[in-house]
């Protein structure tokens, strides 16, 4: 299709959709308006009944904790699927040499990159842990903190190179984090059932409002999510970066 | 609507246009990361810090990195294509 014909088609489509879009824009509530009652209800219930100050965490890990378990299993399935597809094409063997594109030499990392990564990687990892542990108090939580930890692992790769990265971040540890975290979440639900309550019911003492351990079950399942997400992001990065590695002759491909 | 929100909305629109207009994949990845960063700032300004966090780590760090790894892998396994090649017009 020529450029001109595509332009005409796009203009016709835009004209046809314009009345509908205009109607939707006119019917939208004004900015900042929240006509539904749920936000106010959560703000009322969560500090009083769960002793947490981050309402998003209260919703994710308690009020709809079972849905979050589903999301957790979904992430586990997605990452395992990606790993199976990539390893199916590549084989399970892993090596510690970086990729080469043809006969082009690998440029050495500049000192500035190494210095910057050595300064920021530990800080990023610790900040990720902080975000995981303070889920009940401040914005963030297991997912966000776990993803920050995953980014920190990539900074290690960027600063130290492929070989050192593979030695410092063993795949087995990432697998254990991913599976163990998801398992912790699921088993925490069964733990509540031992006392005769419903699955994932909040049976632990709630603690004081503003304390890092407030929220009863919330810190436990949140920590499980944090472990699982850091493992999941680490596994994804590891498998994708392994794809950019060129195998030696005779090595499993 | 405050000037901050208006400015951030314009920034999101500008960076989004940048994603559409960049033709080379590696530049497009960076444009997408910039768009993700603008969205994260907008979410933070709209008082949704948890969403801003997720947007920042997923949209600005994780997804662009995975795209770059895929691009590197494609280059690696098809070395006859030179990195500077532009995509075909009208493809």
TrEMBL record, chain A:
Record's subcellular location: Cell membrane
Superkingdom classification of source: Bacteria
Pfam families: MnhB
Signal peptide (residue range): 1-23
Domain Na+/H+ antiporter MnhB subunit-related protein positions: 115-233
Membrane topology recorded in Swiss-Prot or TrEMBL: Multi-pass membrane protein
Protein name: MnhB domain-containing protein
Species for this entry: Roseomonas indoligenes
Lineage of source species: Bacteria, Pseudomonadati, Pseudomonadota, Alphaproteobacteria, Acetobacterales
TrEMBL record, chain B:
Record's bilayer topology term: Multi-pass membrane protein
Gene3D superfamilies attached to this UniProt entry: NADH-ubiquinone/plastoquinone oxidoreductase chain 6, subunit NuoJ
TM annotation in the entry: 28-46, 53-74
One GO cellular component term noted in the UniProt record for this chain: plasma membrane
Major localization class: membrane
Keyword Transmembrane helix: yes
InterPro entries per record: MrpA_C/MbhD, Nuo/plastoQ_OxRdtase_6_NuoJ
Domain MrpA C-terminal/MbhD: 10-74
Localization: Cell membrane
Keyword terms, alphabetized: Cell membrane, Membrane, Transmembrane, Transmembrane helix
The name this protein goes by in its record: DUF4040 domain-containing protein
